[in-house]
Amino acid sequence: MTQARQQVQAHLDELSVTSRRHRGVLRLLREPATIADLVDATALSRRAIETLLRLAGPDLDRVGDTYRLVAAGYDELALPDDAPLAWTGREDPALADRLLPLIAAAPPPVKHLDHVPATPASVARRATWMADELWLPGATVAFIGDHDLTSVALALAVPDVRVVVVDLDTRLLEYLREVLPGAELHHLDLRDPLPAPLVGVADAFVTDPPYTPTGAALFVARGLTMLRGGPGAVHRRGLLAYGYGEQLPTLGLKVQRAVQDLEVVFEQVLPRFGRYVGAQAVGSASDWYVLAPTPRTARAVARFTVPDERIYTHGRQSLEAEPESAASPAAAADPADVLRARLAEHEASTVRAAAVTALAKALRAAGERPSKAQVRDLVAGVLAPAGSTVPDGETAPDGDERLGALDPAARAAVASALVALLPPSSGRPGPA
Q1: Alpha-carbon distance 188 to 388, whole Å?
Q2: The pTM is what?
Q3: Distance between CA 229 and CA 240 in Å, rounded?
Q4: In the chain, which end has fewer C-beta atoms inside a 10 angstrom radius, N or C?
């Protein structure tokens, strides 16, 4: 293996799932080609082509303005002869036929989790798009919710892909354990932070989230966090299925803005790509968004917090549902009492950073003007259990004492702000 080939392989490894067209360049270079030829054939930028030619330089024969690979060992790096350079609308009826009995045997949809089944043809289309558009041999693809069994379709289309599925529905996970024994399965409510083993494990992610601004942004943020190299890894990709009714462009705009607030680029948007059995409010269809991270994405994801528990469009956790606090006697409870109960059930450190921002806003609304350091101290006191130690070894003050030092309006604002950050222990849609 030549040093130039090693350099080319390292470059392709860095490009990850986005290396498909670069591998197409290597296939084309079996015959003499100019840079203009390569740009025209692959739609890669001239700079991308020149970078690849520079790395392979000693293994190239150059005559005038044409280049050709003359060293051995590049066939295994190049796009195979029978592989398309990109998806051009290919359908796979045979794959859809294989999926039909698997989808029919899957657990039925759960309305309050916004489950609407995609047709087998649509699920197959997702898999063929990924197989034709991304470079997936040996890659890991995460599925952020997978009631449609897109993970199964991809595993059938690309046998050497590694599949990771994160879902709230335990019935689905048990079913996937039977039909997709090689998959890595995780039960998780995405409103909770991702556990460490799921951070930075995937080369791409796929999600068909709840069609609310909060729901879509939450599922995408979790998918970005799962990307190898971090949320800002520009050579990884996210794939989002989302649709809205043609008479509701404002809702579509809100969802798109919520996703783009994560500083991702809509690299492609394929209209009416997916079709559903139901979901007539959105025309029984969804668009296919290809999300490309940018260098700004990591910071945006780090700032992201779940602003509202009501991420679904149906049921008690929907945007249309009446908030529990307004419909139950608990609304009259002391926010500090509710706060203490919630803190007993959740990992306080997961909300610490978000609490600083939220509490600063709440205190300003209550007429207080604290410094950022004071807010951090207040958060530390509120979140720390009484008698626990802080990093310098001293005993942390009781959070309730810190609250009690404020006037009643500020005390209620602080407690309410923290309560809003912590998921409730009841009223969540559990697995059916």
Answers
A1: 29
A2: 0.72
A3: 20
A4: N
